[in-house]
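We both want to read discrete structure tokens more fluently, so let's practise on a single case. Would you supply a protein for us yourself, any chain you care to pick? Would you write everything just below, so we can both look at the same thing?
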Amino acid sequence: QVQLVESGGGLVQAGGSLGLSCAASGSIVNINLQRWYRQAPGKQRELVATITRGGSTNYAASVKGRFTISRDNAKNTIFLQMNGLKPEDTAVYYCYAQIIVSSSYTATYWGQGTQVTVSS
């Protein structure tokens, strides 16, 4: 069984910074890619940032230059450093991982979500 446990988030004023982390635990052979998504009230879940096994990163246009995704491979943990936060960044943030759990099985997992609220 694999679990993704998120931490971080909270309330911050516009222009401030917050950091999120997501630790994967359980039966993990390797991790193909990890992502951060977010979902604001009344809106669809959107992809925020991706980091691949090779270390390549991609960002949504709305966060590029402000957010940074990184990882600690030894701890199977990813991070999202969010700077220059705007009220429109307010959402529940979810981590996602595509994990190889055996030689013949790859599965996707989601974290429980963590609230980020940016006040104007």
The chain has a mean pLDDT of 96.
